[in-house]
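Supplementary Methods, section 5.1.

A reviewer requested that the exact input to the structure prediction be made available. We therefore reproduce it here, unchanged from the version used in the analyses.
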Amino acid sequence: MHRFDTALIHAGEPHPRIEGAITMPVFQSATFEPRGASNYFDLPYIRLNNTPNHRVLHARLAALEGAEDALVLASGMAAIATTLLTVLAPGDHLLVQESLYGGTHDLTCGELRALGIESTTIDAAAPATWAAKLTPKTKAIYVETISNPLMHVPDLAAVVEFARAKKILSLIDNTFATPLVFPAVRFGFDLSLHSCTKYLNGHSDLVAGAVVGSAELVKRVRHRAAHLGGALDPHACFLLERGLKTLGVRMRHQMASAARIARFLAESPAITRVHHPALADHPQHALAKRDLQGFGAMLSFEVRGDVARADDFLRRLAIPANAPSLGGVESLVTRPATTSHSGMSAADRRAAGVSDNLVRLSVGIEDPDDLIEDLEQALRIGQ
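The structure derived from this sequence is encoded token-by-token as follows.
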């Protein structure tokens, strides 16, 4: 088995190479000759996510997480929604981490409940409290490796142990960590979910998602996806495969920069609180240090003052773009209350700890000294 950075380049590539091409060609064809397909789901067809471009990605993503199989889909939410609709049915119950990505919160508290699937939130760092929230209908527990936007870190070992003991599925959104920081399936999670839009691609030029896990579970998700239609286009597959190759060098640089920036912001009188697992005062710093191979490149912080002060800070930044999403080579900054968590009610945001003046920063690969100088000048105005 190759080491991580070698697998990023070579896992899943065809042997022999197609016409000798070093780079995997784009198979921009909707359908193919069956050539021995034994059932409908084996027919090579874009909607079934099984063209040559899809298959290379599936093998590579599975190798990175230590899994049997993987499936790429049209977006991170396609991966999350399709997975939950595969493993849950009307009448079932789900345990979900507090302070989730806003889209996942809306899905579990809105659409799934409308279908008769209930959910209960848990403090993912307090395993002693979970059993009391189980019901006879509980089928799965769902957490984020590093939560969006407050960078909470669950007791990941306890999640795996709890799920096995209670005979429920363990699901994790591994987007913020990536397999570099946390190979979730190798660690023991049943399914690892990704928004490949973010770090796995790393260039802010496509939308994609992935589901990684056992062959049996991924097969079930694949069959459901064929009917829900969340297919990933072959050219997007090509871009994602290309982006994956540089994940290691990108992410290591971004994580080192994010830790420096977090320490700088923690000492700024213009900031009231910084959320980043590398900081010793982060509530789950010890858990992150124990289970993760790095602290991620995302951080969030609360600007001292009101919302107008936070918006003024954002306007004065010169390097980070004020835009949603994350994980690209360029730094991006946003106020989650107006973007990723805008679908939540103000009361739900407050309950989740997402204040209106909370700013989320996705650290890119720019020089960290330039980023710190830019942050410093934007915070200095009006002080």
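The domain at 4-244 is CATH 3.40.640.10 (Aspartate Aminotransferase; domain 2). These observations are discussed further in the main text.
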